[in-house]
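Sample pair:
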Amino acid sequence: MKKSRSSSKLPRHVLVVEDDAIIGLTLEQALLDGGVSKVEICPTTEEALAALRRKQPDAIVLDVHLADRDDGWAIAELVRTLGPDSPRIIFSTGMPRDIPEEIAELGCVLEKPYEPEVLVALLTEPARKGIISRLRGALRPE
């Protein structure tokens, strides 16, 4: 698959926090095909925190219901403490209403299931901190 023309707008390093291996690998491939240089997949909260200690990514795709914790948004709370240069956060969940409103405002919310291309398209747009974006079905091929 060809890299998109807008790949220069994409973050270079994306951390995907996802405990479903198929979803994680699908997102990884879509991001790499879209032009992201490095994608790191972490299936647990502990691995995600270790990855954040090693190198801060440009963006985080965060499943909020992980097998090891049911409050994956705790990672978003931690990321927020990194200041104005903190990674962009995109919540990925089948249950968006479970995310506390003040936490959801830290990034965008993608409701599962969604096409991986929707994530890539979202990452090419400027970050909209403080706005909840529920994109299910918003970007459809014409």
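Residues 11-124 form a domain with the Rossmann fold fold (CATH 3.40.50.2300).
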